[in-house]
Design brief:
The protein is of the alpha+beta class. It has 8 helices and 10 strands. It has helices spanning 5-18, 31-38, 42-54, 83-89, 108-114, 153-156, 160-167, 186-192; strands at 58-61, 65-68, 73-76, 94-104, 122-131, 134-144, 172-182, 200-209, 214-222, 227-230. Strand 5 (122-131) and strand 6 (134-144) form a beta hairpin. Helix 1 crosses helix 3 (42-54) and helix 2 (31-38) packs across helix 3. The longest helix has 14 residues, at 5-18. It starts with a helix and ends in an 8-residue tail after the last strand.
Length: 238
């Protein structure tokens, strides 16, 4: 059976993306141009384009056109997922490398964020989050010792949220996040393997259980060349 024309066209466009003829972030030619180029109907061209949209190679921007997709991980800030959950959803195998794990007296800022008393101690954990040995995220997390007395290096080498929900049996409700573009300091640059002049995204967040108890405060650093943050805004009444 012969290959449908739209698949042949999709294959050619895919080759143009792979070899750099069509570059990341660049708009592809119009339907009219492609129709003339491949001697095909616009319906066939739309089928070819839709095939590559579904593969994630192209993305349509309403009112603008169709573009070669950026090879960035799309992080939806309205969906509370752990790094492990996010990577598994993308069929990637994540690794959590614990760089620092210690019992400590928190700063006044951390106490305020966790809403804990003056004499309470916390676990401070710094983790490097990797995929295929490439660091994507650096995470500094503070967890009250009173809530997680058996927390360990081994536990934090896995999924924090999996431990909290499946082993501790406590349901997470939501997190509150603030996103700040920053220039990384020397330490962060080293662990993310980025130049100190390259801006990165810092997320400060605290998360709560269903009873509104704050259980974590984290400062998370995302590589701006690996991540893009998305949100959807709608007009009131729509």
């Amino acid at each position: 059976m012969s290959t449908p024309l739209y698949r042949k066209i999709a294959g050619q466009l895919k080759e143009d993306i792979t070899n750099g003829t069509l570059r990341v972030g660049e708009a592809i030619p119009t339907e009219a141009h492609l129709s003339n180029l491949y001697k095909a109907s616009r319906v066939t061209i739309r089928q070819a384009i839709q095939t590559l949209v579904e593969e994630g190679l192209l993305e349509k921007v309403q009112g603008s056109g169709t573009y070669v997709s950026e090879k960035k991980i799309e992080h939806n800030i309205f969906e509370l997922q752990s790094f492990t959950e996010e990577m598994k959803r993308l069929n990637k195998t994540p690794v959590n490398r614990v760089i620092d794990f210690q019992l400590t007296d928190p700063s006044d800022h951390v106490k305020r964020m966790l809403q804990i008393s003056e004499d309470e101690k916390v676990f401070y954990v710094r983790r490097q989050r990797l995929v295929d040995d490439v660091p994507y995220v650096l995470e500094d997390t503070y967890l009250p010792v009173s809530m997680f007395p058996n927390l360990s290096y081994q536990i934090m080498s896995g999924s924090k949220y999996d431990y909290i929900e499946n082993e501790k049996g406590t349901k997470i409700k939501e997190s509150f996040q603030e996103i700040i573009p920053i220039l990384p300091d020397e330490d962060i640059s080293k662990f993310l393997e980025v130049d100190s002049n390259l801006p990165i995204l810092k997320v400060q967040l605290y998360s709560i259980f269903r009873d509104s108890t704050v259980f974590e405060y984290s400062e998370i650093y995302f590589k701006s060349d690996e991540y893009k943050f998305t949100l959807r805004a709608s007009r009131p009444g729509n």
